[in-house]
Amino acid sequence: MHADFILKLRQASKGRPYVLHRPFLCAHTSLVPYTTNIPTRNAIPRLGDLSPTEFSALWSDRPFILTAPVREWPVYKEWDTSAMLRQFGEIEFRQESVDWPLKTYVEYMENNTDESPLYLFDRDFVEKMRLLVGKEEGNASYWIPNCFGEDLFSVLGTHRPDSRWLIVGPARSGSTFHKDPNATSAWNAVLRGSKYWIMFPTTADSPPPPGVYVSEDQSEVTSPLSIAEWLIGFHAEARRTPGCLEGICYEGEVLHVPSGWWHLVVNLDACIAITQNFVPRSHLPSVLSFLRDKPDQVSGFKKAVTKPYEAFVRGMQREYPDLLTQAIQELDKKSGARKRKWDVAIGCAKGQAFSFGFGTDGDSDEGIV
Q1: β pairing state of 92-95 and 98-101
Q2: Of 9, 251, 265, 268, whose CB has the highest number of CB atoms within 10 Å?
Q3: Average pLDDT over residues 262-275
Q4: How many CB atoms lie within 10 A of CB 369?
């Protein structure tokens, strides 16, 4: 560390060691030791591209990075901060809980020294920027990578939940550990900059990531307030934890986040990205289960959609009845397995003393509450 940094740290610590020292330390700690030297066993796979069939058959449950599709997008070739300011500088975008013109946010982004910098995360960017999306459009700005094209929430039409966002942020901005909403999967395409990701799967017998605490119904997640604070306190343990995956998604690349995976992401430099949530057929049962069994945690739907589960089922029945039947049968099978386990436990309790548990036969109760 530089001498002036040490001096400032000591001055900040006098009398109030934690209140001032910790945020200052987190704001000035280098991210390099935490985002480099990724163990081979932890590395997120990197691929050129995938077909929809390959994705559905082999990759829908696994994180990966694609290096080819985004490089064809016009916005990848044309957008940087200066170009966006010229075109969209006066347009207001959402920065977490506030709306600023882009030019105001960029000024903040280029001059901030915050521990947790404000992050532009706007769900209405396509309409605000008058973008055309999809290869079928003559002057499309971008299109969904081919392998992610199937999205069963499309049966809801204009009533689908929020699904796509423009993301802009300085170095050190990002998101602490979370899962994507409504049990959806997601892709995140980096147009400028680079992002470090660390990810963990969710299984019936696995705890959340180190330093993350979840309420019994999984509606509340508690973790360190800033990304840097988590990295300082828990990264070493996380890197040793089975199932941990890490990687850097560079500009022109897109990362896949499977349904149910915990993930933390931090910008290593100023970034521009586009992300979208979707429902592939392989995760239809999980999405149906979430909408049905956790209605208080469902998010992103317009107020007019008062019963998201029923609306989704109607849409699936209309357009993909066979897929819906298969998914509901899978849900019923999981529910039946859970009930059988419960009946066995109750039977043991009536006949003899026992140690309560659901066994270790590998059955998953994910999404069943």
Answers
A1: antiparallel
A2: 265
A3: 97
A4: 12
Nearest by Cα to 338 from 320, 361, 322:
361
Q: Which two structure tokens, joined as six digits, stand for 21?
A: 């020292």
CA distance 31 to 18: 21
Element (H, E) at 186: strand 185-192
Cα-Cα-Cα-Cα dihedral sign, residues 211, 278, 274, 101: negative
List Cα–Cα distances, 335 to 49, 140, 339, in angstroms.
37, 44, 6
Averaged pLDDT, 191-216: 92
What confidence tens digit (pLDDT) does each residue in 89-147 have? 999 999 988 999 999 999 999 999 888 999 999 999 999 999 999 988 789 999 999 99
Residue 154: CB atoms within 10 A of its CB come to: 14
pTM of the model: 0.85
Contacts of 61 (CB under 8 A, 6+ apart): 258, 282
Q: Which two tokens stand for residue 269?
A: 């430099």
Amino acid at 95: Q
Q: Is the distance from CB of 232 to CB of 225 less than 8 angstroms?
A: no
CA 183 to chain centre: 10
Give the DSSP per-residue string, 232-289. HHHHHHHHHSTT-EEEEEETTEEEEE-TT-EEEEEESS-EEEEEEEE--GGGHHHHHH
Cα–Cα distance between 297 and 345 in angstroms, integer?
29
Q: Among residues 220, 186, 224, 180, which one has the least CA distance to residue 202?
A: 180
CB 155 within 8 A of CB 162: no
**At a CB cut-off of 8 Å and minimum separation 6, what does 197 contact?**
44, 63, 245, 246, 247, 248, 249, 255, 263, 264, 265
Give yes or no for a contact between 238 and 245, defined as CB atoms under 8 angstroms apart: no
Which residue blocks in the chain are alpha helix, DSSP H?
A: 3-13, 17-28, 32-35, 52-54, 74-78, 81-88, 102-111, 125-129, 227-240, 284-293, 308-319, 321-351
The per-residue pLDDT for range 59-82, each reduced to its tens digit, is 999 999 999 999 999 999 999 999
Q: What is the mean pLDDT of the chain?
A: 87
- Supply φ then ψ for residue 199, to 5 degrees: -140, 150
